[in-house]
Amino acid sequence: MTEGAALAAAIERTRAEVAALHAELVRYGLVVWTGGNVSGRVPGADLFVIKPSGVSYEELTADDLVLCDLDGVVIPDSPGSSRSPSSDTAAHAYVYRAMPEVGGVVHTHSTYAVAWAARGEEIPCVITGMADEFGGPIPIGPFAVIGDDSIGRGIVETLRGHRSRAVLMQNHGPFTIGASARDAVKAAVMCEDAARSVHLAREAGPLIPIPQERIDHLYARYQNVYGQDGDDRR
Amino acid sequence: MTEGAALAAAIERTRAEVAALHAELVRYGLVVWTGGNVSGRVPGADLFVIKPSGVSYEELTADDLVLCDLDGVVIPDSPGSSRSPSSDTAAHAYVYRAMPEVGGVVHTHSTYAVAWAARGEEIPCVITGMADEFGGPIPIGPFAVIGDDSIGRGIVETLRGHRSRAVLMQNHGPFTIGASARDAVKAAVMCEDAARSVHLAREAGPLIPIPQERIDHLYARYQNVYGQDGDDRR
Amino acid sequence: MTEGAALAAAIERTRAEVAALHAELVRYGLVVWTGGNVSGRVPGADLFVIKPSGVSYEELTADDLVLCDLDGVVIPDSPGSSRSPSSDTAAHAYVYRAMPEVGGVVHTHSTYAVAWAARGEEIPCVITGMADEFGGPIPIGPFAVIGDDSIGRGIVETLRGHRSRAVLMQNHGPFTIGASARDAVKAAVMCEDAARSVHLAREAGPLIPIPQERIDHLYARYQNVYGQDGDDRR
Amino acid sequence: MTEGAALAAAIERTRAEVAALHAELVRYGLVVWTGGNVSGRVPGADLFVIKPSGVSYEELTADDLVLCDLDGVVIPDSPGSSRSPSSDTAAHAYVYRAMPEVGGVVHTHSTYAVAWAARGEEIPCVITGMADEFGGPIPIGPFAVIGDDSIGRGIVETLRGHRSRAVLMQNHGPFTIGASARDAVKAAVMCEDAARSVHLAREAGPLIPIPQERIDHLYARYQNVYGQDGDDRR
Keyword annotations for this protein (chains A, B, C, D) (predicted)? Predict the structure, then answer.
């Protein structure tokens, strides 16, 4: 296969994967109407694909996704290039530029995560499921509005060097990252699950902390042992 | 096409659109049993179509919708004219008469919006999704009961000149308006989403306000930039 | 048609209706596993049909329903007579004996209704939807356990002469009655909806009462005007 | 049939039953992503089958389940033996070794049960549905992390001699046991239902206790009378 054909095939696979992953946002109740998006980096290229703006999840097909370079500029004459990409495209692009290890980015306004974000309060790590998945608390990112690089910069400054793959942008909502788009979607699902469980736990009384060394132990095991060999789900 | 044929076609399109939109109320959990309704203005005519009273959402077809004039009087010998229109028809009609820019009206008893309404408390704008969609708080309308124009008047007096397309009628529930029926349904979905997120946020501690100029900026951008060109979803 | 054939046809219709109505309990999330039941009186006979005990909702067919006399005794050699009827059969039978106007009875353990029942606290009528449907608060019935007539007696003593078609049996859960099985199912759906909305409303601050004469007005209108003529949905 | 053929048939039946039961965890909202598992003892053998680690519920087939001995060691050359069993396998195995009457074990991170677990607080028995099913409060087990026998030991020490078939492991989540895998799944469903109802009840005011002799009476009746004869659902 020529290099061009290999790239075209990689773009196709990424389109199909990212389109299908939007259904997981719906299934787990993380989005209403058109308010959330998934993007995925094209392996081996400085490109990513992202949801078009304002398109419903049921109508979304692989060809609707918009192919962008790492500055968030739409690649002309590609499928979906007649559409406007998600209004969060600049934030996704910033993350891909700054964090080469990131293969996928997800943004939602999932209910309980937004509730923590509206108080600017990080989610404490008091359940073993959070220790497994995030290795500690889920942090708060700065208040930032659309229009420049401030959302992308806020995500990167908060998550770089942090165990958590999820950040709650203040007054806004969660952004999650992952080694793949699928991994970032899993982080979005588990972030909302943690936000809900800890919210409910705390409203009824004081929480029992988990000692840090136990958190460290759970996180290390989960990253290395869980799942099937060669499984990208971690 | 004659003028009569064009009108007939416009009525048919509106019937089909409004019938289908009721499924969105079910999908997003905004209604139980038969407790919510959508209406849509027929473009270019002083007419609107509305759900018949007490009919279940699964049974509802385009031909079941009731065609009314702007006084809420059923047009005789039209499909659905043997049925009673929604008991909220007078309120919808009042809105269409008073606000020519409105193309659709929705009423539900969605859970969290009703909770704010039972306290007579407006929903503060502390999340960016609300700033985008409503440009500020979602206001409370007066207590008013069925039987005269008081519900319709309360909706219009509250929403005229207000950025919000949603009003919470005290002790009752939300009414939303939009440029189209679809836009009013979107407002109903986003209103419940905001009601839920802010309810949960506040029960766990103090909220961080968003500065007014940031709200203004987000609202202006969302009204002008979001979605695809020519998209009626705003 | 002979009298015997007419009765057989009435039993068949009641079986089919009651079997189908169990799906509404599932749809509205009022039941988990096998924990809720619907019964319906056979029009023109001293008989009712009820869910068999411990059978899942997906497996339930019209022939599985158990035909009983008004003492709750299974009619021998009828379809379903090899099965044990619901363990709540004595309570349903008591209601049919004591209240000839009742055509259907429903029992669930729906979440929010159970929460009010565990505190022994009636649901105040602070939303117009409750005024429409129940004409005032939803009352609490006595603590009573299975084994004698005490549950049935508690339901009847609470609901006889009361506008509400729903009673929350203390520490137990809701029982609802109606002119038909469908009407009793509607009452179960609206009872949980009211229990949830008022629970959420009150946890965030003081509620605004609705003046009694407004409640009376709404209730009177809804009982007489809502729905289509000849509609058993009220 | 030879003894070997009978064992093979028993393994097949157990595989099919346990695979299908995972769908109940999804249906009742007890799990997100891959975070819960069911196992079932093979009748008449020192073997059990369990979910593979990190496999999604939609993809799961009977042949994917992993067959283990009572030390949790995978039986070589059996279907599914190329997969890693659930990371909770050691805990399940411990329960099967220590409690020969147990035919099924379930673990989830269901939301409300986790909330009680994060506070280390048992669920008080204030609703008759809990008295029926669990015969008293749902207890808390010790804090224990994966890596040795401590989770399995904590489950057994808490549930041995206890009426409850559910334990909330502190900071972790519920484990349930049953005479069969189906019975353990029912316990998981009813545990979350009780956790949710009692959480909501208590957040709005003081609960009415149920006298112990009434709890004893309800529990005794439910274990002996409920359901159909010969029904494994209890």
Answer: Metal-binding, Zinc
